[in-house]
Specification:
heterodimer; A: alpha+beta; Rossmann fold; 5 domains; five-stranded antiparallel β-sheet; 26 helices; 38 strands; globular; B: 246 residues; alpha+beta; Ribosomal Protein S5, domain 2; four-stranded antiparallel β-sheet; 26% strand; binds zinc ion; rRNA processing (chain B); nucleus (chain B)
């Protein structure tokens, strides 16, 4: 059957266009109930259960299917995802509306629908002959859709009755819209609100907490005082942005001050790039990361960013007046130069809410069900939730989602999603930091695992196609101790012509991960393996990462080899790439390899090979440094874990041996060779990595700091920077050079992946290479898998696939990889910070030597070389008289009560754990030397400030 | 806002068809008495009219272009100014029309037994009255019926259909919405009996691994079109013979 849809549509140019679209109605769309004779049961995929038994609802004890409307799907997805809710019919009308309104919810509902156990069925009602409804005269699209949903619900009930009358199987319509519900009941459709239904599930009381709390429109005006001005509708915002009255940007809340935020304006405007918002009313319910429209104030109302740290500590709604007082505090007299463009939020273009980790601040009122939730991320406002299990949730890390933020509410409303566990527990904290950094860490799904090779695995003849047998070569791997995912191995041998042959052999991961399948998609999503202090979150399943792809010794492994012929001056004469089979002769640690090289009596094949590599690596490194490559430094620390409790018992900075740099040198060389090759072959869609040169202003801190020690750092080119860093030595202060390098690292830009067809600048500043990519770690980086595929196609060893040569797809992949890498780095830092806390918790208070890295207005940032630990010593404390501070931005220096601090000054600090805020435990540092009366802490006497148990102090005094 | 979902998880397209289903086809032959042959076709909302003037006009060599060994096929394509949603005036003989004319000519030169009528000229005029995707295919199908109506001998029907490729699935007979989404599209004109290809044209890039699947979808669709056109022709002949019989 055919229906024509005719409607008018305005074109971009403003003309009116008449659009006629065909709309076919069918009678072969099944109802999704198995065993339905009328539909023939013909529908693939997951479907409803014939007689759903659970959940038992006190409102409707008979078996039933649920049919939610669009808003229920959008707002109560947390309830629908609960395992207790099954047998749900999702109408096409509903699904399409969800798709248009929220991409994240759409994705979640699709995942639920694909889960066989949930028994969700999507009914294509818009194309069903009996359920299609036409928009009536004077009826708006929303009303029409509501009617379509009711028609489908009614159809279902009649259809199910025909199927089997005695089953009394019915569809229950779930809607939170009062009018819609009334109409449904009038039409004889059983209908409930989501709340009514969930509360009737007596066997699952915990579901109630997961209900989103939504105030119905209109209701909010009645109760309470209006705090915020109204958000303008999207159409007005778009008009305003077009005409320049409003600006569109990303809202970034301040970490330090809950009354302040900045909006980063989209687009290329030079002027007013960053707009400051101050005060609750001007922030107007925007949440960190939301896309908002702002109105810019006239210059007379501009303010300066405040330097005050303010944390939201209010409990009560009625504190709004107090807020206004606090806001006044921000407006301190400042000189005109400091004033920044200022404005207010007039509307929200797109919310970017996600579930947040945090803790419950239980209400002071006993029996209260309303509590405030404090997110771990300080940029997120506190959220009001309703829960009956407040006492169980106290002291736990929980996840909460925001539902809405009415105009009369000081805080947004939300609902409880999940309990993660006790605060301070290692598992809980790890889970929190993974969630907060958006690291996908669920176990691999069955679908993903199904693409793994079947065990026992062996190399077959088919695998040997386009592959060279290099098992005879004396290949070995050199890695940190305990490494199970070995992705590179090396060899070096002398050729008959006197030249040297050097091979870098990389695990052939792309042989096992085929483009487009679930395994590939999951690896692409994860993007990188994340290394936490005591846990590794693999990018690929363990069978690959620690076994089949790991180039362990004495087993045959598939590899992708890059083989050079070099002369003894390490000049490359020939480069070739081939897929291969290798059999590593030894898996060495850096220390073992170093020992072999150093002991003159050892002269076996492996050692000779290692010595050859080491010799060439030194020449390569020298050449690279001459070209201007930077050797920077960042203090890396490792924890020695207690083997039973897995608590950190000691901490040491990483030691660097010659062999570390030997392996690194060849990896760099392989990456550069591969980058050249794939760019030659695919000029438009090679995946490369670049490192932009930092803007000169980034170096200011470094130059000033060096100057204060009478040293000159040149920053005009990478080469001069490298040279001046080399020359910046002070015989009296050997650690100075390392400090300078640490500072230089902070000045650098982030290196990023990009698609060669989308960019002109390929330069890698840090490595001083015109082109670079990642080829050598495919087990733990997805970028390398793509590079392997490109290289394999380039040498004809594997076939291509469409997405590989689509530069937009490639650019999307790069974007995700860059995001994942950044997040992995942050997660890693957070993990180190947490373990540092555990370490100092067990160690008690210690005093250590430290160097000043940065001087701030009211604090100094110091580095403790022994632990590679960085921390801030504050000189202003709450409830204490403020010391006299003079800050000089030019040098920079900070003078406190007559004592001046410069960058790189040596100080002594006391390190202790501050547990005053359970959610944000942190390492606190206090000055010991130089002694400043009233500021520094005496070295050996006990201190009243440090609420630490007595015995720990004794330990310290020993 | 999310873009249009061309193929739902349940396997339905925007207009409710499944991937390999054609739009509704309606056709009539002999719509104009003046012409030697004529036909009108509707494929969904795409509507085309074809008129043929043929044998033995042109004998005597008024036209210098006449060929000594076979008939000359001349095709002209035009689209009505009201054929698309936007009101746009298209000058006669614009680039798109010329190109379409050429493609049609190429198609019908492959199908008409031109060598039977040397030094003559066959004129095929096709006008699209409404465009909603697959204009080339509708033109070919209409012209085939018109040529048959004119009684000009052909090797076989020429049946055409378009196909596209979305999320790993080949879609047959693209509508305008689907064409506008910008994916790869392929137009195929087939001589169904022999399976010979009269014309194959491809827009946008499609990886060769998928070509076979899309081509197969287009070919199957063209064969389905053939079944329908064949039915139309038989119906027409029956009606005509009844008229003659009276
Ligand atoms: Zn049925």
């Amino acid at each position: 059957m055919l229906k024509s849809k005719t409607f008018l549509k305005k074109t971009r140019a403003g003309g009116v266009m008449k659009i006629v679209r065909e709309h076919y109605l069918r009678d072969d769309i099944g109802c999704g109930a198995p065993g339905c004779a009328a539909c023939g049961g013909a529908h693939g995929g997951p479907a409803l259960e014939p007689l759903p038994q659970d959940p038992a609802s006190s409102l409707w004890p008979r078996p039933h299917y649920l049919l939610p409307d669009t808003n229920v799907l959008l707002h109560q997805i947390d309830v629908l995802e609960d395992p207790a809710i099954r047998n749900v019919i999702v109408l096409q009308t509903v699904l399409q509306e969800v798709r248009n309104r929220s991409a994240p919810v759409y994705k979640r509902i699709r995942d639920v629908t694909n889960n066989q156990e949930k028994h969700f069925y999507t009914f294509t009602n818009e194309h069903h002959r009996e359920t299609y409804v036409e928009q009536e005269q004077g009826e708006n699209a929303n009303d029409r859709n509501d009617r379509a949903i009711r028609v489908a619900a009614k159809w279902y009930n009649e259809h199910l009755k025909k199927m089997s009358a005695e089953n009394q199987l019915q569809v229950i319509f779930i809607t939170n819209d009062r009018k819609n519900k009334e109409k449904a009941v009038e039409e004889g459709i059983p209908a409930f609100t989501c709340e009514e239904y969930v509360k009737s599930l007596t066997a699952n009381p915990e579901l109630i907490d997961r209900l989103a709390c939504l105030s119905e429109e209109g209701k909010e005006i009645e109760s309470g005082k209006i705090i915020f001005s109204e958000h303008l509708p999207l159409s007005k915002l778009q008009q305003g942005i077009k005409s320049g009255i409003y600006l569109q940007g990303t809202f970034r809340a301040s970490r330090e001050n809950y009354l302040e935020a900045t909006v980063w304006i989209h687009g290329d405007t030079e002027e007013n790039k960053e707009i400051i918002l101050q005060g609750l009313k001007h922030l107007n319910r925007a949440v960190h990361e939301d896309i908002v429209a702002v109105e810019l104030f006239p210059k007379s109302q501009w303010v300066a960013p405040s330097s005050v740290v303010l944390q939201d500590e209010g409990q009560n709604e009625d504190d709004v007046e107090k807020e206004e007082e606090r806001e006044q505090m921000l407006k301190t007299a400042v000189n005109e130069k400091m004033l920044k463009p200022t404005g207010r939020v007039v509307g929200i273009i797109k919310r970017n809410w996600r579930p947040y980790c945090g803790m419950l601040s239980k209400s002071d009122i006993k029996e209260s069900r309303r509590h405030l939730f404090t997110p771990a991320d300080k940029r997120i406002p506190r959220i009001r939730i309703e829960t009956r299990q407040a006492s169980t949730l106290e002291g736990r890390r929980i996840i909460v989602a925001i539902d809405g933020w009415p105009r009369n509410s000081r805080y947004p409303n939300g609902h409880f999603v999940k309990n993660l566990g006790d605060v301070g527990e290692k598992e809980t904290e790890t889970e929190v930091l993974l969630l907060e950094h958006d690291v996908p860490h669920q176990p691999f799904s069955q679908a993903v695992l199904s693409f793994l090779p079947k065990m026992p695995w062996s190399i077959t003849e088919k695998d040997m196609k386009n592959r060279e047998d290099l098992r005879h070569l004396c290949v070995c791997s050199v890695d940190p101790p305990g490494c199970t995912d070995i992705d590179d191995a090396l060899h070096c041998r002398e050729l008959k012509n006197g030249n040297l042959e050097v091979g870098v052999h990389i695990a052939d991961v792309s042989h096992f991960i085929r483009p487009g399948n679930a395994l590939d998609q999951e690896s692409a999503r994860r993007g990188t393996t994340v290394y936490l202090c005591e846990k590794r979150i693999d990018m690929v399943p363990e069978l690959l990462s620690s076994n089949l792809c790991s180039l362990r010794c004495n087993v045959d492994r598939l590899a992708f080899s890059c083989i050079w012929e070099m002369n003894h001056n390490a000049e490359i004469l020939k480069t070739r790439f081939t897929k291969s089979v290798i059999n590593s002769k030894a898996s060495l640690t850096y220390a073992e390899a170093q020992m072999r090289i150093d002991s003159a009596t050892v002269n076996d094949d492996i050692t000779i090979s290692l010595r050859g590599l080491n010799k060439l690596a030194k020449i390569l490194k020298k050449g690279r440094i001459e070209k201007g490559a930077l050797t920077l430094s960042s203090p890396e620390i490792r924890f020695h874990m207690d083997s039973e409790t897995h608590d950190p018992i000691d901490l040491q900075t990483k030691e660097l041996r010659e062999t570390n740099s030997m392996v690194e040198e060849f990896m760099l060389l392989a990456n550069i060779s591969v980058a050249k090759k794939i760019h030659e072959e695919f000029s438009e869609h090679a995946l490369l990595r670049k490192h932009p040169a930092p803007p000169p202003s980034n170096y200011e801190i470094l130059v000033k700091a060096a100057k204060s020690k009478n040293l000159e750092i040149k920053t005009d080119t990478a080469k001069s920077l490298a040279q001046s860093l080399d020359q910046a030595e002070s015989p009296a202060f050997p650690y100075l050079n390392t400090l300078l390098r640490i500072l230089a690292t902070r000045c650098m830009m982030q290196a990023v992946y990009f698609c060669s067809g989308m960019d002109n600048d390929f330069h890698h500043y840090g490595l001083a290479s015109p082109i670079y990519t990642h080829f050598t770690s495919p087990i733990r980086r997805y970028a390398d898998i793509i590079v392997h595929r490109l290289l394999a196609v380039a040498i004809g060893a594997d076939c291509t696939y469409p997405e590989l040569t689509d530069k937009h797809k490639l650019a999307d992949i790069c974007k995700n990889l860059n995001f994942r890498h950044k997040m992995a780095q942050y997660a890693q830092r957070a993990s180190v910070a947490f373990h540092t806390q555990l370490f100092f918790k067990s160690k008690g208070i210690v005093s250590e030597e430290a160097y000043i890295l940065f001087v701030r207005k009211n604090a100094i940032v110091v580095l403790i070389p022994k632990y590679g630990l960085e921390g801030t010593v504050f000189f202003e404390e709450k409830d204490k008289p403020k010391p006299h501070l003079i800050y000089d931005d030019e040098i920079p220096s900070l003078k406190i009560e007559g004592i001046v601090f410069h960058v790189f000054d040596k100080v002594k600090v006391k390190i202790m754990l501050d547990s005053s805020n359970l959610q944000h435990q942190k390492i606190r540092m206090a000055l010991v030397e130089p002694q400043i009366p009233g500021i520094s802490i005496p070295t050996d006497s006990s201190n009243a400030d440090l609420n630490e148990p007595e015995k720990k102090k004794k330990k310290l005094e020993k | 806002m999310a873009g249009l979902e061309l193929l739902s998880d349940q396997g339905y397209r925007v207009d409710g068809r499944r991937a390999r289903e054609l739009r509704k086809i309606q056709a009539r032959m002999g719509v104009f008495a003046q012409a030697d042959g004529s036909a009108y076709i509707e494929q969904g909302n795409t509507k085309a009219l074809a008129v043929v003037y043929g044998v033995p006009r042109g004998i005597g060599g008024v036209r210098s272009r006449a060929l000594p060994d076979r008939a000359l096929v001349n095709c002209q394509y035009s689209s009505a100014t009201f054929s698309t949603g936007e009101r746009k005036r298209r000058p006669h003989g614009d680039r798109k029309s010329c190109e379409m004319g050429l493609q049609l000519r190429q198609t019908f030169e492959a199908a008409i037994l031109t060598q039977l009528h040397p030094r003559s000229q066959i004129d095929i005029y096709v006008q699209v009255l409404q465009a909603d995707g697959g204009t080339y295919a509708a033109c070919v199908n209409a012209a085939t019926l018109a040529v048959l109506d004119a009684g000009i001998p052909m090797r076989d029907f020429v049946c055409a259909c378009s196909a596209g490729f979305v999320e790993g699935t080949a879609l047959a007979d693209l509508s305008h919405v689907e064409e506008a989404a910008g994916g790869p599209q392929l137009a195929l004109a087939l001589l169904p009996a022999s399976g010979q290809i009269a014309l194959l044209e491809m827009d946008a890039r499609l990886h060769e691994d998928h070509l076979e699947q899309v081509l197969e979808a287009a070919a199957q669709a063209a064969r389905d079109v053939h079944t329908l056109l064949d039915h139309v022709v038989r119906q027409h002949v029956r009606e005509a013979s009844i008229l003659l019989g009276d």
